[in-house]
Amino acid sequence: xxxxxxxxxxxxxxxxxxxxxxxxxxxxxxxxxxxxxxxxxxxxxxxxxxxxxxxxxxxxxxxxxxxxxxxxxxxxxxxxxxxxxxxxxxxxxxxxxxxxxxxxxxxxxxxxxxxxxxxxxxxxxxxxxxxxxxxxxxxxxxxxxxxxxxxxxxxxxxxxxxxxxxxxxxxxxxxxxxxxxxxxxxxxxxxxxxxxxxxxxxxxxxxxxxxxxxxxxxxxxxxxxxxxxxxxxxxxxxxxxxxxxxxxxxxxxxxxxxxxxxxxxxxxxxxxxxxxxxxxxxxxxxxxxxxxxxxxxxxxxxxxxxxxxxxxxxxxxxxxxxxxxxxxxxxxxxxxxxxxxxxxxxxxxxxxxxxxxxxxxxxxxxxxxxxxxxxxxxxxxxxxxxxxxxxxxxxxxxxxxxxxxxxxxxxxxxxxx
Length: 417
Description:
Jelly Rolls, mainly beta, Immunoglobulin-like, 3 domains, disordered N terminus
């Protein structure tokens, strides 16, 4: 009964040790010696090793792809790690060098006596190795070496980390790119006019020579209305970015840029803020027209540009409702009759979306003394955001001869805060 109790305890200890041996914290680097010709899943075989008594201390080495030695040094670089043995190991870190592919002595990776390089690489971070005597400091110990000719750094046998003074130490290292410096909009800027600003910042570099991309984050803050969403755009390859959607006016925005490497290690700029001040600016490019001589019951309008219609353009940075009203034109007929009318039309040289057609006056309506909307939500987005104010006249049958004139008033009001 006593013997069975001891057996259970030893078995439990063995299971616990085995689990701890290969469970590492995420992204930690560690190597261990095991009695096997292959390594567990999630690790890679650095070298095989064996001495004359089939142990792993004071052992000769073989490259990782030759699976005839009973012991292996297994390293948990990352799930996507790879080990290669080539002359020079381009792109990877040389951990050791061997004088043969099997039954080999070893030297540290920075020596140049041996031809066969043992390399580690990682798809997550950069592996760096050092070769101190004594302890590894912050790096992980891979193995130790013992030489027979007065030096331990070459012509050496391999042992575990507690066997010899000459250590081979490695770690996963990664440095963030340099911090971006924000340029425009500059901090505290209240004169930004365009609602799709071009943001620009400094070029950032990476000491690991990793490629760098940028993430811009623009926030309007908790007090902003829901129609002013925040902006977050990543994977920007240049040092400037122009928004694809307009920002709101008259709210303070904060913005930062983060420079990131492919391993999502980032360095974020200081925070800047700016404000886009609303500007409602309507101009009349054509503000006068003359119909010439017309007979009673004769009709003419400006839709054929002869005579010319009025032309209005939004030069501000907010949507506008444009209104029209006028003074009486005819003696025999009052306003709000079919004899004097107006209509909204696109400028032929401008875009078709200069104003909202669904709520604009796109058919002839009677001119009135009070202001009425002709262009609804006239756009500010394009330099040619214009609209034509078409006028239509029919001379009343009982209108007497003589010159007639009317004062037309064009007004505007912003339709967004």
